[in-house]
Amino acid sequence: MAIAVEGSRPKKRSVLDRLSVGNRDKSITFVNVLLMCLPALGMLIVFNYLPMFGLVIAFKDYRFAKGIFGSEWVGFNNFRFIFGGAGTGWRIVWHTVSYNLIFIFSGLVGSLSLAFLINEVHTTRASRVYQALAFLPHFVSWVVVGIFANGFLRYDGGVVNKLLISLGREPLLFYQSPSYWPYILAAVNLWKGVGFGSIIYMAGMLGIDDELYEAAQIDGADRWQQIRYITLPLLIPLIITVTLLSLGGIFRGNLEMFQMMIGNNPLLYSTTDIIDTFVFRSLLTLGSLGMASAAGFFQSVVGLFMILATNALVRTINRERALY
Amino acid sequence: MAQAQAIVRPRRRNRFSVSKTLIHLVLAVVAFLCVMPMLLVISTSLSDDLIVAKEGLSLVPQGLTTYTYEFILASPAQLLRSYGVTMLITATGTIGGILVSSLMGYALAHRGFTLRGVFVFIIVFTMLFNGGMVPTYLIVRGVLGLHDNLLALILPTMIIPWYIMMFRSHFQGLPHEIMEAAKIDGAGEWRMFFQIAMPLSRPWLATIGLMYVLKYWNEWIPAMMYIEDPKLFPLQYLLQQIVRNAQFLRSVRDAMTTRVKIPGLSLQMSMVVVAAGPAMFVFMFLQKYFVRGLTAGAVKG
Q1: Which of A25, A32, A58, B279 would be a feasible disulfide site paired with B189, CB 3.0-4.6 Å?
Q2: Is B156 in Cβ contact with A255 (below 8 Å)?
Q3: Helix, strand, coil fractions of chain A, as percent rounded to 5
Q4: What are the residue boundaries of the structural domains of chain B, listed by start?
């Protein structure tokens, strides 16, 4: 019997299946396997699924005493407040999307360039040192990154201002000047992520067949031509996949980063306030929970469609990397 | 043709080494920029506070002193407490997270398990859609009542759907023969999980475990949301509070022109070194595990 099953379904099924199918204690196995799922399942229900139902408060006038389901329905009022005339809704959505686009683009260019450079010298011992050092910022918490940034940008004694003064220029009040922050945040994000991001492209480069390069060398291609006509074209599917997957999260901002870099500094909100910081602030300072939940609802729902769309595209390119 | 190549070749090789030097130079600059903020912090922490206040931050210690470290070590109670809190939530969260997600991953590796499809959907859906911060906060704090409770820092972020799927695809790839032999020897599912599947998964346990460690160690937003009692401050949140308070105190002092003792920059920076340095040092040597987690790529069955 067991042999027949094995023979009729070769390779496709793992041993775990074969053992549970047609086994005399099949039901015991089922119960045990179900038990194994329960802890994770329970936590998913409490911390992931219950909050999804909690999204209804976007349509309610939430009162702490009445609870999520006891509060009164107010229809689209919360949305009207935040996305209507004087609301900041569209501003924070625009900031979230545009910062993510900046981060995705700069991260792509930075990580890819770093990967190319390290790949060019990848046989040397020094390359491992570069790689290790470039990876280091990944381990730094955003709290510490915020402190680093302050060391560079502070008015009195900050590194950047010391440099400006030594060049005979006026020092800048970064923490009061919103116009600098898109550049600052892009730089900080790049600093923290470039080494980490380059790893995936380097892995991709290592997967390219050496024979291609040998053939190209015989044909007289120099290193630049080899990159241009072999490495880059072969990396394109990976680049597109990674980019699409990050585009899927374009409505989700990095709260830890923005909250630590900007904090509650209203002088900078005009260029730096994103959905997540707005919601977080409203939540903790007991601002308008209604507007916060409306913004959160928008983020969750539009984010869902964004992920579905990008993931559908990823599936056509690289099925293995798609989320589902 | 052959002649032409012979002429061209030495020149090309020459240009090669020039460009290699250039690449090394660029990479060295990039690597330096990556570690420069850390050097800046260490150097400031070893500097004399008065000189720092006057001259600003510098990559070389000014008026070398270890005074600030002595100051911190003289009254380390809060720091030690926060270290303890962070270690506790990191250890519990990591062990719990690994256990819970590997169990589910193992269960979902069974193709004979009839609920498999449903459960996989339940997991994947949480990657696509979430309730966001407001409902989560209201449930954790309101419904579960986890205020000033370390469980609020451990439980809500313990399940990472992606890790369950990583475990699942790993268990699907385990060698058949061993599991089969164990089954014949009468091992039940739990025994097979704990005594065979887990020991065979050490590299994956290390990789996913370290990703958990890094996450729990560096997280501070949940503390800001759920913790008010300083006795329960994790390290990162303590650090954030110290820096924020120093900035706040400075603005107050400027307004009142009184002489309030404020932790200077060098003291703040030594707090950063003491609070964040050791963990970073350890992570640095475990880098290869993080790289493996990143390049795992295809994780679906």
Answers
A1: A32
A2: no
A3: 75, 0, 20
A4: 76-262
Q: Under DSSP, is residue B57 helix (H, G, I), strand (E, B) or coil?
A: coil
pLDDT category of residue A120 using cuts at 50, 70 and 90: confident
Q: What is the pLDDT of residues A127-137, one digit of tens each?
A: 888 988 999 99
Residue B93 to residues B86, B88, B104, B127, Cα–Cα distance (Å): 10, 8, 16, 20
Q: Do A130 and B30 touch (CB under 8 A)?
A: yes
Contacts 24+ apart (CB under 8 A), B114-118: B114/A30, B115/A34, B115/A37
Assigned token pair, A207:
């997967």
Amino acid at B142: G
Predicted ipTM > 0.95:
no
Q: Which of A133-147, B65-79, B240-254 has the lowest mean pLDDT?
A: B240-254
Strands A60-61 and A72-73: antiparallel
Q: Rg of the Cα trace of chain A?
A: 26
Please give the domain boundaries of chain A with CATH numbers for all domains: 2-63 (no CATH), 79-321 (1.10.3720.10)
Contacts of B295 in chain A (CB under 8 A): 199-200, 203
pTM: 0.86
Contacts of B225 (CB under 8 A, 6+ apart): A283, A284, B137, B140, B141, B152
Contacts of A263 in chain B (CB under 8 A): 244
Window 29-58 of A, Cβ < 8 Å to B: 29-30, 32-34, 36-37, 39-41, 43-44, 46-55, 57
| Record: contact A279-B133, CB cut-off 8 A | yes
Residue of chain B whose Cα is closest to the Cα of A39: B100
Q: Which of A59, A143, A162, A285 to mutate to test the interface with B (most CBs of B within 10 A)?
A: A143
